[in-house]
Amino acid sequence: MIDKIFDEFQGQPGATSWFGELLTQDYNHDIEKTISIQSFNKLYNEAIFFLHNNNIVNLICKAETEPYRELVLELFRTESKLSFTFDNTKTNFLYMNGIIDREVQEIRSYIKFSSPFVQKRLFNHFSDELFQVMGHILEPFESIEHIIKDQKINIKNLLRQYEKYLKKNKNWLFKDAPKRKDLRVFEAVYHFNLYMYLFNFLSPKGGHVYPEFPTGNGKIDLIIRYKENVYLIELKSYTDESGYYNALEQAAKYGKEIQSKDVFLAFFVESLSDEIRKKYEINFFDKKNQVTVWPVLIETGI
């Protein structure tokens, strides 16, 4: 559990001390018992969604401020990493205010979020800010037997249902969404929208969805828990064929790391045909890692 605390807060004094005090005092109702990882998980969930911390609120306010908001949104992308340099005033500001950190790979430096906790708080903040109103998740009297049956979720069909929802509601959903300089919607906006859709779809049925960021940049996963089952969806934006096949291999390696035999890989793409869908939505079994990757293409139409 001590390792878990360090991993989530990366040793940041204010956040670590705050969470440690909550865990050992405010939320510790029996000081005679050893604090368990279950206690950590319960409190961590509270800290992500409900508990107030002045430092985190201040951090979110700074991340929301223009012109820094644009860079923060770009950091959630999965296509490639952003270079880190102190000569960039935006990078400098976000680093000095504890929002981002530096990742060194050989002779290159890249931007990453300062900690998983900060990244999750920002992800939740933007998701709720942009998509507080989602409209009808399902049509009245629409059956979901093809999605949930025998206490199991068909993730492919669930993502298909989301794509159907996206096509019907995209015009008003993304009307005021933040856009890049080329007037394209930020990649992260789709991730926020899918997360909020899954949250609204699963919550009334006793399901839960959690965002995870294993690397601090370039990778976003959504973990779904329903009944006794856990499902992993990795989010990607389609770039090219080589990037597609590389994503399949990386997903298989990650599946082995977390001891999951199945990984769903959701690719966001602007437009596609039935022929493209048939070609790329083929399950990939990695013999080396003994993991099956299930690719699903989601057409944004934008």
What does this 3D model show about the protein?
The protein is of the alpha+beta class and 302 residues long. The protein has 2 domains: 50 residues, no CATH class; 165 residues, no CATH class. The protein has a 6-stranded mixed β-sheet, with helices on both faces. Strands 1-2 form a two-stranded antiparallel sheet. A two-stranded antiparallel sheet has the order 3-4. Strand 7, helix 10 and strand 8 form a beta-alpha-beta unit. The longest helix is centred in the middle third of the chain and has 19 residues. The protein is globular. The relative contact order is 0.10. The model has no long low-confidence stretch (mean pLDDT 92).
Task: Summarize this structure briefly.
The protein has eleven helices and ten strands. It has 302 residues and is α+β, with helices and mostly antiparallel strands. The strands form three sheets. Strands 5-6-7-8-10-9 form a six-stranded mixed sheet, with helices on both faces.
SSE arrangement:
Blueprint: H1 2-9, H2 13-26, H3 37-49, H4 54-64, H5 68-74, H6 89-96, E1 100-105, E2 108-113, H7 116-130, E3 148-149, E4 152-153, H8 155-173, H9 187-202, E5 208-212, E6 220-226, E7 229-237, H10 241-257, E8 262-269, H11 274-280, E9 284-286, E10 291-299
Helix pairs in contact: 7-9
